[in-house]
């Protein structure tokens, strides 16, 4: 981890105490056996194709044009979107707008190690992948030569943090009234052998990624636009053969489609609330105008009379 | 889509109608023969004056970021005056006030119409808050120092002059407009400009005028 | 496609690949390092891509940084799985010492299809890498005593047969195109990159082949690149297409590398270097 010069750093050869616990000394095979208790029953009691309860809401950050907060089980992600501004360091006119995405982990978010404040390679990869996922969704021709800033902060990471980040960013963009072609939803899956864990926890992801055997293993994250039937982002890491990739793709598509009504409900609720507030403000403004008009009438009459 | 007391609320991606039925208005786009929503808001169908078809558009409670387009009338405040160009900061687009943004570099402005030109200006050396009065289409005079200075004065429509009744001051507020034309040379006449106050916000005019008068580079 | 290995004498392994207008130079350096505490029996491999300003003027200064980051990320992901590249072969003494490979990729000329060329060049360079034999003794007090043999040719080679090859498929209209040129790349708004690890039979001699088993090709990484989106069917077709292309490519590459190695063993290698 690069040193952070704004803070007092511990001595260089410090290690996390977690490495001396019984858990970290388990072999990969033991860990593998642990995540699946019985046939089709996971450690946290879910079925293989069952996702964790999801909570979405908008207007989490009052200072941002649009924002969203998403919870996938205990993974918590907050995202804020700001108004289009000029692209910095740009010399030539670009016909399409740009998206500037930044993903940041809170230092206390990951269970295994403390994340540094400087953006490390994983955060940079996720930022690029988030941009990749959102670019086809936004109508970039509506703000040429401007860029929209999207900041995602992962408060707690317990698996599927990237999928939660895409969901949050998509919702925040709708909240910010950025023109979009469709709603984008994302979900992820961990594959270990013949078991497909939908919406994996951090433990399941760890086992899937660090498998040393000869079986199919890996983590796939997929983001789709449901109405237009398009995949905007597909990342796979690990080693899987084509049939398992295809099977995983089918399951993920289904799950992404299931998320759409949740996001839609949230948007409709917030829109109706916003319309109600707008109506109240308009009524209040009309009242004020009316009293002012009455005053003007009174003075005019006075002028004419006197 | 959801039917509420305000109308039909849509989210981005909602399929609204066939492209043949209605024309795409703001907030919608056309793809493969259908019209889809681009924003989250209430669907509105209005009559189009020119053509016979109705326009379908989405009305969002939150305004999307407004950007000046070619042909828009904007209000700008002059910041730098050179012999060839005058730089300014765009403050309002049409009737809506823009959010404070950094300087916009990519628009060429023109005042080549009767309605466009200088609205508020102050004379050199005059104290702040004293606006010049136009005496012809190309001259303005300061009421305190009686200095005349050349400006291209904007011809403002009478319904937008609404302050005269409320204050004692002679100088009347006019609008300064400029049409955006990418490619036209920028020729704003030298002088201070002031923000356009949209007709609905009359009550704030006098106070804002004081704050923005002056500003000759 | 022109490929030559062992072009840089100071590196432990190197390769230069010329694919039409794309020119890639890869150098591999080995260092002894302490293994990560979580993986005491594994070595490390790190990729670094440098877009030289020679390629296009846009790469001058920090211009090529984004592209370089994305390619190195892709390579890191492709080599992540132990089935793609087994890091255990880099272990010297479990928990104490291991080899760390620094794979430095230099893009000399960019004429389309960078990822594929980079992956082929990296595989060739790793095939060419010589790791010295190390005799390790654990002294009293936990000190490590390393002894490298004096003979520079007394080294071991890496088991690189299953290293992944990236295949880029550019979506132009309705079809996917393999190995796009720069013009074709500018026509498409989205491209799919598939990293395929095939079985190592192409990289082993006849004797070894009889003993190893015949597995099927696997994907070690899949990525979508570009500001566009794809239909799921297109993605499926593209992955299958990529598999076929990678298989053919792997076969050809394996044959060539084996042949070059045989030529080298007799010290009869005719060096072309950079003059061609």
UniProtKB/TrEMBL annotation, chain A:
Cross-referenced Gene3D superfamilies: GHMP Kinase, N-terminal domain (3.30.230.70)
Domain of life: Eukaryota
Record's keyword annotation contains RNA-binding: yes
Family that this chain belongs to: Belongs to the RNase PH family.
GO biological process: nuclear mRNA surveillance; poly(A)-dependent snoRNA 3'-end processing; rRNA catabolic process; rRNA processing; U4 snRNA 3'-end processing
Residues annotated as domain Exoribonuclease phosphorolytic: 50-179
Pfam families listed in its UniProt record: RNase_PH
Keyword terms: Cytoplasm, Exosome, Nucleus, RNA-binding, rRNA processing
GO cellular component: cytoplasmic exosome (RNase complex); nuclear exosome (RNase complex); nucleolus
InterPro entries linked: ExoRNase_PH_dom1 (IPR001247), ExoRNase_PH_dom2_sf (IPR036345), PNPase/RNase_PH_dom_sf (IPR027408), Ribosomal_Su5_D2-typ_SF (IPR020568), RNase_PH (IPR050080)
Molecular-function GO terms, alphabetical: RNA binding
Entry's localization field: Cytoplasm; Nucleus
Protein name per Swiss-Prot or TrEMBL: Exosome complex component MTR3
Organism: Eumeta variegata (Bagworm moth)
Keyword RNA-binding included in the entry's annotation: yes
UniProtKB/TrEMBL annotation, chain B:
Subcellular location: Nucleus, Nucleolus
InterPro entries recorded: Csl4, Exosome_cplx_N_dom, NA-bd_OB-fold
Main location: nucleus
UniProt keywords, alphabetically: Exosome
Superkingdom field: Eukaryota
Pfam families documented for this protein: ECR1_N
Protein name: Exosome complex component CSL4
UniProt source species: Eumeta variegata (Bagworm moth)
UniProtKB/TrEMBL annotation, chain C:
One of the protein's GO biological processes: rRNA catabolic process
Any one Gene Ontology cellular component term annotated for this protein: nucleolus
Pfam families (UniProt xref): RNase_PH, RNase_PH_C
GO molecular-function terms, A-Z: mRNA 3'-UTR AU-rich region binding
Main localisation: cytoplasm
Record localization: Cytoplasm; Nucleus, Nucleolus
Positions of the Exoribonuclease phosphorolytic domain: 1-132, 164-244
UniProt similarity note: Belongs to the RNase PH family.
Record-linked PANTHER family: EXOSOME COMPLEX COMPONENT RRP42 (PTHR11097:SF8), EXOSOME COMPLEX EXONUCLEASE RIBOSOMAL RNA PROCESSING PROTEIN (PTHR11097)
Stated name of the protein: Ribosomal RNA-processing protein 42
Species assigned in the record: Eumeta variegata
